[in-house]
């Protein structure tokens, strides 16, 4: 089991480099089926034989979501300086509803639960209904950007996004950043909600690694309107890198 978890995090790191390859060749939803690390990392939300990459555009994405996706996706392309080509430090992270085909987890999980487990933010099948998002990371700058379009199933106050849904996404974005160099868990998350997010709207979530002290990673996150003029939410988080046995209840 510990080995499987290790594969999960290695796989997550692989995704960073794989995503660049995919973004260059997608028709929408196409995913290389040749990579064994990808095949082993996801189960299907639908009856397709390939893992479904939720981070690629679908018809529910509005113009702002598409525009921002294209903006950041174009930054992931290979940069050319004169004759020289160099890999961009931006990568799009593919998004699956499962990180491993066969879940691993605490020793208390039954096989039945494990087989049904799904990533919280990727378990709504109807396009546009829940969390529509795509993550981009800049490894050099230790920065993560998420473009989020919040669907109608995320309602909290009438017509606006639930604070828990916003917290979920902040945890996801900061968590991705903190996990780039290995397994990490949220120890602390502080959120200031500054202005409500209308349902159906698109927001930009930017996360930075502020400080690293041993196992501790201090990460901040800001949620704004696409043009950056409206601040919706601010957060700081503490992540602790963990030994994978920690998740095995040992
Ligand atoms: C790749 C997929 C992308 C998806 C991303 C999704 C990301 C989602 C991330 C999550 O949601 S994780 C789930 C929510 N988090 C948890 O369930 C964590 C539950 N808590 C724990 O498991 C442990 O408390 C934890 C691993 C966080 C820390 O336990 P440890 O035993 O490893 O640490 P320890 O208690 O020894 O503390 C180590 C240091 O951290 C400090 N510390 C620990 N918890 C703290 C806290 N809450 N606030 C401030 N400091 C804290 C602690 O004081 C100490 O400081 P010093 O070294 O300076 O003495």
TrEMBL record:
Pfam family name, one: 4HBT
Enzyme class: hydrolase
Keyword flag Transit peptide: yes
Protein name per its UniProtKB record: Acyl-coenzyme A thioesterase THEM4
EC number(s) given by UniProt: 3.1.2.2
GO cellular component, one term: mitochondrial inner membrane
UniProt organism field: Labrus bergylta
Protein keywords: Apoptosis, Cell membrane, Cell projection, Cytoplasm, Fatty acid metabolism, Hydrolase, Lipid metabolism, Membrane, Mitochondrion, Mitochondrion inner membrane, Transit peptide
Matches recorded under SUPFAM superfamilies: Thioesterase/thiol ester dehydrase-isomerase
Family from the record: Belongs to the THEM4/THEM5 thioesterase family.
InterPro entries hit by this protein: HotDog_dom_sf, THEM4/THEM5_acyl-CoA_thioest, Thioestr_dom
Membrane topology: Peripheral membrane protein
GO annotation (BP), single: fatty acid metabolic process
Catalytic reaction(s) noted: decanoyl-CoA + H2O = decanoate + CoA + H(+); dodecanoyl-CoA + H2O = dodecanoate + CoA + H(+); tetradecanoyl-CoA + H2O = tetradecanoate + CoA + H(+); hexadecanoyl-CoA + H2O = hexadecanoate + CoA + H(+)
Ranges of residues in domain Thioesterase: 159-230
Sample GO molecular function, one term: hydrolase activity
Compartments where found: Cell projection, Ruffle membrane; Cytoplasm; Mitochondrion inner membrane; Mitochondrion intermembrane space
């Amino acid at each position: 089991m510990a080995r499987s978890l290790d594969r999960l995090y290695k796989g997550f790191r692989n995704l960073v480099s794989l995503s660049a390859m995919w973004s260059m060749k997608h028709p929408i939803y196409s995913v290389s089926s040749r990579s064994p690390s990808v095949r082993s990392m996801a189960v299907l939300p639908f009856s397709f034989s390939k893992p479904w990459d939720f981070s690629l555009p679908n018809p529910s994405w509005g113009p702002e979501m598409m525009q921002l996706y294209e903006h950041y996706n174009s930054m992931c392309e290979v940069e050319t300086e004169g004759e020289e080509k160099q890999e961009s430090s931006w990568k799009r992270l593919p998004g699956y509803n499962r990180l491993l085909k066969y879940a691993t987890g605490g020793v208390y999980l039954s096989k039945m639960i494990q087989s049904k487990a799904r990533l919280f933010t990727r378990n709504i099948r109807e396009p546009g209904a829940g969390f529509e998002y795509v993550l981009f990371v800049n490894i050099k700058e230790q920065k993560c950007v998420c473009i989020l379009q919040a669907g109608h199933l995320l309602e909290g106050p009438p017509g606006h996004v639930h604070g828990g849904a916003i917290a979920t996404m902040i945890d996801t974005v900061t968590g991705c950043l903190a996990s780039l160099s290995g397994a990490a868990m949220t120890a602390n998350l502080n959120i200031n909600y500054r202005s409500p997010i209308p349902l159906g709207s698109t927001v930009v979530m930017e996360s930075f690694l502020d400080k690293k002290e041993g196992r501790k990673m201090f990460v901040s996150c800001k949620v704004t309107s696409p043009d950056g003029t409206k601040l919706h939410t601010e957060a700081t988080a503490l992540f602790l890198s963990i030994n994978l046995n920690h998740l095995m209840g040992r």
